[in-house]
Structure formats: C-alpha cells, structure tokens
Amino acid sequence: MKPVDLATASPEITAVIDDIKASRNVDDVNNFWKYLANEPRMLAHTWNSLKAIMGPGALDPLTKELIYVAISITNNCDYCMASHTAAARAKGATDAQINELFAVVGLANMTNRLANAYRVPVDPQFRPNDEPVQRSGSDR
Description:
CATH class of the largest domain: Mainly Alpha
Mean pLDDT: 94
Helix content: 55-70%
Low-confidence stretches: none
CATH topology of the largest domain: AhpD-like
Number of strands: 0
Strand content: under 5%
Number of helices: 6
Distance between the termini: 54 Å
Number of domains: 2
Radius of gyration: 20 Å
Shape: elongated
C-alpha cells in the first residue's frame, strides 16, 4: 500500500485532510492520514472519532495522550507509540513521566497476564454493587 497523493486526492479526501490541517493548525498531515486516505470512509470515520474522543472531555489532553501511548505499547504499534509520545511531549510530558509510564505499562502487562494465568476471581469489594460475585468451581 502506498500513501495517497494529496495533490490529486478526491474532494471527499481533501475535505477531511483540510479539516485535520485546520484543527491542528498544520501545513501537512502525518503519514497515518495519507495511508488511511486509501479508504476514504475509514479516513473520515477515524478522524471524526479521534476529534470527538481526544477533544475536550473529562480527561485532560495530556492524560489522553499518555493513555494512547500505553495502549500503543501494549499493541506494539511503533507508529502510534512515536506519534502519541511526541503529542504527549508537546502537551508537557517530561522524560520522567514518559519513563514512569513505560514502567507502569510493563508492570500492568505482567500482572494482567499473571491474574489471567491463575484465573484469579475478582474480589467482591472491587465489583460494582449491582454485579453478582462469580464463584470459582469449588464454591458451587
């Protein structure tokens, strides 16, 4: 797959690309958008979803970027790790914060796998009040 040449892109693609440029106040878009433009419906869907979720909300912009970096590490997406780490740094993330994020992600992945391997049941105090407690096979 090759990136779409934005100079000759369809009006459908150009409209989304122009919105990205205007929203981000940039002259060009990242490679991700140029490749995604091969499927204009997905380009539009992804941009609209990203704009809505990464925009103003209950979480601050830096926290959202750090979460994005964490998920990108877990999914082993080099592109997303690089682009969202850069975005987090642009929003004020320090080297210490990025390093601590890496440590938390590594630890969480390890303990998640251990909990899954041991099939540890969730403690009642960690469940919402309306969720029934699951019992292990020996408790039934």
